[in-house]
Amino acid sequence: MNINWYPGHMKKTREAIEKNLSLVDLVIELIDARIPYSSQNPLIDSIVKNKPRIVVLNKSDLANYESNRRWQDYFSVKGLPTVLLNSVNGKGIDQLMKLANIVTEEKRKSYEKRGVINKPIRAMIIGIPNVGKSTLINTLAGRKGAKTGNKPGVTKSNQWIKTKVNLELLDTPGILWPKFEDKNVGLNLAFTGSIKDEILDIETLALNLIEKLIKIAPESLEKRYKIGINNDTPLDTMIKIGEKRGCIIKGGEVDYTKVANIVLDEFRKGIIGNITLELPVIGE
C-alpha cells in the first residue's frame, strides 16, 4: 500500500490549530483505541508543544480490555493523562471531565484571582479523520452540534460549541500527516476506516486484515464465521467465510468483493470481537 496524501485543507488545518492554540486552555487528543500508534499524528508533540493535553482512547469498547490498560500505562509513563471512552454512549465522559478539571486547575485559579468565576474550560479537540471527534462533541453538547458521517473528513471548518458541562469546545477537521512511512500504519488506518475505501483495493485490504487476525485473534474469526482455520492461508480463510455466508456467484465462485465488505464492516463494528491491532513497545 503506497499512500502519500496531504490535501491542501489538511495543511490549512494544521496552521489553524497552531494559530488557535492560544485561545484554549486544553487540548483533547482523540485516538483510536484499536490502533493508538497508527491513529496518533506523529507531529502532535511539535504542534501542541506545552499546552495541557489529555489523550482519549476512543472506541475503547471495540478494543481488547487488557490492551487498553497497557496503552494507558504507556501514555502515563510519557506524562500524558488518558481516559478510555465510548463516545457513542458517553461512557468515560465523567472521567474526561474530571481530568480536564485537574489539568486546567492552575489556569482556572488564575481566572479566579482576576475575579472571573466559573469560566468554562476552553478545549480544542483534535484527531485524525473518522476517529469520533464529532460524535464526542455531540454527546457533550447533548445535540447535533457538529456534522458527522460514515466517511472520514466530514468536518470542514473550526466551530466553537457549548456543552452540557462546564466546557467549550473548538472542533477542528481531522488532520493527517504528509506521508505514511510505515506500511502497517497505512493498513491499520484503512482497516478501521480512517482512509476512504474508495481509494483502496477492498479485496486486498480485507485479505490483509484476515491475515492479521489469523495471527492475533484466530479464535475470534473461527467463532464469528463458524470455520476452522488450522494452517489455512488468508485466502483459504476468505473462501471459507464466503462459502459460510453464501457469497457465491455464477459458476460456484466466491464473490470476494462481498466477502471483503462483510469482514471489514464486521471488524469495524466490533462484531468479530474486541480486537486491538497493535500494542505499545516499551522504551518508545
Which descriptors would you attach to this protein?
single chain, 284 residues, alpha/beta, Rossmann fold, Conserved Hypothetical Protein Ylqf, Chain: A, domain 2, 2 domains, elongated, cytoplasm, GTP-binding, Ribosome biogenesis GTPase A
Describe this structure as you would to a colleague:
This protein has 284 residues and is an alpha/beta fold. It has two domains: 164 residues, P-loop containing nucleotide triphosphate hydrolases (Rossmann fold); 68 residues, Orthogonal Bundle (Conserved Hypothetical Protein Ylqf, Chain: A, domain 2), CATH 1.10.1580. The chain contains eleven helices and six strands. It has a six-stranded mixed beta sheet, with helices on both faces. α8 crosses α10. The radius of gyration is 20 Å and the shape is elongated. 37% of the residues are buried. Pfam families: MMR_HSR1.
The main sheet comes to: 6 strands, mixed
Q: What string, H for helix and E for strand, traces the elements in order?
A: HEHEHEHHEHEEHHHHH
In the CATH hierarchy, the architecture of the largest domain is 3-Layer(aba) Sandwich
How many structural domains can be distinguished in the coordinates?
2
Structural class based on helices, strands and sheet pairing: alpha/beta
Q: Predict the CATH topology of the largest domain.
A: Rossmann fold
Low-pLDDT stretches: 148-156
Give the name of the CATH superfamily of the largest domain. P-loop containing nucleotide triphosphate hydrolases
**In angstroms, what is the radius of gyration?**
20 Å
Q: What is the first-to-last residue Cα distance?
A: 25 Å
- Give the % helix: 40-55%
The beta-strand count equals 6
The fraction of residues assigned to DSSP E strands is 5-15%
Shape: elongated
Question: Biggest sheet, strands in spatial order?
Answer: 3-2-1-4-6-5
Organism: Wansuia hejianensis
Binding site for GTP: 58-61, 86-87, 130-135, 174
GO molecular function, one term: GTP binding
GO cellular component, one term: cytoplasm
